[in-house]
Amino acid sequence: MSIKVQKSKNWIFLLAVILTLGIFGMAGWADARSSYLTQYNTYFGTSEGCGLCHVNPGGGGTLNATGNAFGSAHNYAAIKPTDTMPPTVAITTPTSSPTYSASSSSLSIGGTASDNFTGPFGVTQVSWSNSLGGSGTASGTTSWTATVSLSSGSNVITVTARDEAGNTGTDTITATYTPQDTTAPTVSITAPTNAQTVSGTVTVTASASDNVGVAGVQFKLDGTNLGTEDTASPYSVSWNTATASNASHTLTAVARDAAGNTTTSAAITVTVSNATSDTSPPTVSITAPTNAQTVSATVTVTASASDNVGVTGVQFKLDGVNLGTEDTTSPYSVSWNTATASNGSHTLTAVARDAAGNTTTATAVTVTVSNATPPPTPEAPDLTIWVGQWLKITSRYNGYLAQSSKLSAKRASVVGYIKFR
Questions:
Q1: Among 100-114, 128-142, 182-196, 370-384, which stretch is predicted with the lowest mean pLDDT?
Q2: What is the 3-state secondary structure of the chain?
Q3: Closest among 157, 116, 117 to 138, alpha carbons compared
Q4: Residue 241 and residue 226: Cα distance in Å, rounded?
Q5: CA 20 to 30 Å from 28, out of 62, 81, 109, 233?
């Protein structure tokens, strides 16, 4: 009996020890758990709950599962939760649009990133890469910025956000970059040469080049466009110098590239010398006879004529019909037998002509032709005169002796006696 009692006492003691240890163990667990959660939430900035941690009050080190030290007030270890959800990342600068036209080879981008966990379990890095070359790490995580170098063409920029578990999320933007051409072309006039004298139609030529390409060359005469822009090499324009005055003129050429850069060539000076075109007609007037004059027999018709270059000739006209031939030397005149015209009113004019073919007709002069009219001649009868007879004839005739001593007389004037034998 005593032995059983002793055993009973031993079991009672053992049970008391176990209960004591359990009470103290639970108290230690509760104390450690409370302290751990306080420091965990302070360090990570969030409350994950007890289900995400395990506390070993009997020891086990002072580092969490990621190797971060939490302090040594109590022994604890964090058990990292399972994370399979990728973070999200968004590009908001320079635009939230998926495309962008860049004016510079350096592009600043920026945006935001987020994850289902925060702190060290959340977004740990934001990086970028360019399809045309280059990559890097952005500054910041949940709010980030980066500077990307662009190449000519379409640059597809991919931004990647990574969380502590290795999950990644991406966003892209396509930045199109066309390098700006700020280099102006070069241009010079190659023909005609400076100080050259030109006439007629000449070809003005120029030489032009550019680092990218010449879009066109516009020639100018005295600062005004000469023809249209020539968009293909060799660059030239045809210039009819007769459209410019006989004097000194300035030629230039303006070269343009596709970016709008322009260069004006050094000016050259040429002298236009064309034969003067005569468009001025001569002046002419009848000087004799005078208007309303009465004329008879043969008269001399005269005219006065002059021209800015020179009179080539004067053609007199009677009633609109040429009177004689053109007189090509001064003084200008023509002899007119008025008996060839009828008695009455007639019109005299004169047409002066210069070497350029310009003509002027003088103001008409009206004259009256008055010549004496002879009386009509009567027809004399035929006469038959026998030989040996005397005949006194007083008559006008144009006679002759016919054969066989027979006289036939017509329109003759004979005064006297005729004896035929």
A1: 370-384
A2: CHHHHHHHHHHHHHHHHHHHHHHHHHHHHHHHHHHHHHHHHHHHCCCCCHHHEECCCCCCCCECCCCCECCCCCCCEECCCCCCCCCEEEEEECCCCCEEEECCCEEEEEEEEECCCCHHHCEEEEEEEECCCCEEECECCCEEEEEEECCCEEEEEEEEEEECCCCEEEEEEEEEECCCCCCCCEEEEEECCCCCEECCEEEEEEEEECCCCEEEEEEEECCEECCCCECCCCEEEEEEHHHCCCCEEEEEEEEEECCCCEEECCCEEEEECCCCCCCCCCEEEEEECCCCCEECCEEEEEEEEECCCCEEEEEEEECCEECCCCECCCCEEEEEEHHHCCCEEEEEEEEEEECCCCEEECCCEEEEECCCCCCCCCCCCCCCCCCCCEEEEEEEECCEEECCCEEECCEEEEEEEEECC
A3: 157
A4: 11
A5: 81
What is the four-CA torsion angle of 226, 231, 235, 239, rounded to 10 degrees? Answer: -20
Q: Is the pTM of this model over 0.70?
A: no
Torsion of CA 129, 130, 135, 140, to 10 degrees: -50
- pLDDT higher than 90, residue 243: yes
A 10 A CB-CB count for 234 gives 11
Using alpha carbons, select from 262, 265, 249 the residue that is nearest to residue 189.
265
| pLDDT tens digits, one per residue of 166-197 | 999 999 999 999 888 899 999 999 999 999 99
Asked if residues 312 and 329 have their Cβ atoms less than 8 Å apart, the reply is no
State how far the Cα of 281 lies from the Cα of 314, in Å rounded to an integer: 13
Q: CA geometry: angle at 294 spanning 288 and 295, to 5°?
A: 70
Tokens of residue 29, six digits: 């667990």
Q: Are the beta carbons of 370 and 295 closer than 8 angstroms?
A: yes
Torsional class of 310: left (φ above 0), alpha (ψ -120 to 50), beta (otherwise): left
CA-to-CA distance for 183 and 286, rounded, in angstroms? 74
Q: How many CB atoms lie within 10 A of CB 123?
A: 25
Backbone angles phi and psi of 118, in degrees to 5 = -115, 180
And the tokens for 419? 């004896």
